Fold each of these.
Amino acid sequence: MPSKEQELPNIPPASANRNAHRDTEATTIASHDAREKRRKKRRKWLLYVVLFIIFQSAVIAVFTLTIMKIRRPKFSVGAATFSNFNVDNSTAKPSFSTRMNVELRVKNSNFGRFQYKATTVYFSYRATSIGEALVSESHAKWKSKKKFVVDVDLDFAGAQSDPQLVSDLADGVVPISSHAELRGKVELLFVLKKRKSTYINCSMEILTGSQQLGNIAC
């Protein structure tokens, strides 16, 4: 009967070494692949973080340059109608008076309402004051244009000594101008408030023949 030592397979030492070497190589490759996967995963997450930061920075920049940027509102003169039109272009004592119902406009381009105080709009004929119009305290909604009509009595009595008045009345074209300062605050997101003033500085012409307001430039 064969002994136990004779029953064991006879494995050459060289073959055993090769198997051990292969196992070591397989373990090394597996470990290297695992490290490589972890590196790629870290790089991917790092890329996501960088892209998120860039995206957030772009959003903040756009938000700051558009929504949070406070622009100066615009104050201007629109159309007008007239009543009580009285014209005398005699060279001895020229006179002109009328009531003008003039449309004023406040354009607010901000993402918040413009709350403004009461003010006075002054009308002049060649540097001579001819009338005033009162603008009541109010507000213009965000991204909107507010229109309202005010009445002003225009009296050219103070310009009777101006030689240009007779000529202008004879031509039927009387140039006038308006100026005023509208003070207020722009309210953003109902939290941020910033003082902003806008000015009206318009030139226009009263066409006495058709009793209309023309050539408005603000």
Amino acid sequence: MQPVGSGCCSRMPSIFAYQSSEVDWCESNFQHSELVAEFYNTFSNVTFFIFGPLMMFLMHPYAQKRSHYVYVVCTLFMIIGLFSMYFHMTLSFLGQMLDEIAILWLLASGYSIWMPRCYFPAFLGESRSQFICLVITATVVSTFLSFLRPTINAYALNIISLHIVYIVFQEYKKTRNKELRHVIEVSVIFWAFALTSWVSDRLLCSFWQWINFSYLHSIWHVLISITFPYGMVTMALVDARYEMPHETLKIRYWPRDTWPVGLPYLEVTDDEKSC
């Protein structure tokens, strides 16, 4: 695939003289710097380094009650930002693989922690430890196979993502909790806008270049970073219905509940009522 902005690859520094990725985004390459292939797509990943640590701090009380693996999820989110920055800076095959594999491990981690036991495969019963082992094994295999056949990773990402969407949809139909329904709805709206930006950058690149606005993928980075806190809180609330029956979880918003826009997080209070 010929990179956008013909002739630009001849200016690529020798330190990046290794296998290039077949994936290239709409933003012109090396337009603003000889060291950074896609300037806006690279530095728009800064939002991962803002929301990741912030959610780690805001979700600390919940993590103390439920699972310290919440910190792993937030750390993987920041690693995605780092690898995505490297990928868009170099447009290398290695960068592409690191970016996609980090996303795979993030989804697998959230899947392992928050998937309700009632959705486990029947042969596992309700053993979360066995379910986690199964997910980790499948993720490790997919990771190795992705270097041999990169399309394997795309299938793995889609399978996990679609199953998570299915679970959330099922829980949305079950619950009468207005807070949970609201956070699911907002998550879907942000995700839909983010996905639209991603698809538009891939399929309508000629149009965006014609109007001199080829930055839809950088907007994807910002929107998916905002979607992450909502998705995390959604899965945590779904999980809490099954795993934390004696605690009451309240959705709060940073920096203030009264602001029209904010990052959601969970406040946990003991509930003395029996299940």
Amino acid sequence: MKVERLSKTEGSGKVAKTICYYEKTIPKMRDGVFKSHFRLKRETVEVLMQKTSIECADRGLNIPVQKQLLITLWIYATPDSYRSVGDRFGVSVSSVCRVVHRITDCIFALSPTIIVWPTGQRLYSVIEGFRSLNGFHGVVGALDGTHIEIKAPKKHHSSYINRKDYHSVQLQAVCDNKLRFTSAFTGMPGSVHDERVYRLSPLAKNIDRKSIIFDADHHIIADAAYPLKNFLLTPFRDTGSLTVDEGNYNFKLSSTRMVIERSFGFLKGRFRRLIKFPSNNLKFVVKVVIVCCTLHNLCIDNDDAFIDCITDPNLVNERAENASNSDDSGISKRTRIASQL
């Protein structure tokens, strides 16, 4: 049986040996077992290889590109330490670190081509898909946010403590009716209010500069933590005196908006590193979060379903207050839609 010599184990002074997991075990894995470990089908990994092999060509590590990719996917998929992953794949801890950063950079470079706002025929397919869910017309996406727990950053760590008293960065995202992310923005400290996260996001800036244009009857849907706009519809505030139309509107908006909560659930169910990210390197955390969103989309595009959807306890919008800065056109549009549903 082939074995591979590893670097000396720290503190033991002994040279360890391991069965070549990559060379011997992985090729014999049943497809279901492979996916349970790496969270992607073999076919999806091949698609990813085609997109990243040139950029991630071996540069002195003497590790096959496919092996680099599988090491990185294992890191995303589990809370395992770099040391344990290195032991499994027969490489040093420092090599695991270099590999993960290299592959992360490669996939991150692909994100603008995979996380894209719907346009043309795809836009109308998304709108029809949302309408078929619950009869809510004109929806181009559902907006929400979630916390990614991290280690305390070295600088300004108190800013990253969220209302649940742990350090986090926020992921704000929009998804379509098929749970595919069409916008993703992360890195803002956990203490920052949802409305401010939105205001500082590329999504809001693109809308302001008309890079994203909404027809009069098209809109994003969100909960009450976001500002009510003509293009961003939120619920009526429930003070106990909602009309029948307003109550029905709130119900249908909430039911339709659940797709974004499911997107976050599948994202964190597939990539468990995002549940509790053991790093305070904010630049790296941001890249990995966006990379996982990118892989989430790639899986959907390649019919690579994942059934492990967790109930995300870290959604940012569990507060009851309504956001400020609502505008008259949004109020008027919401009232009109409520009367039509």
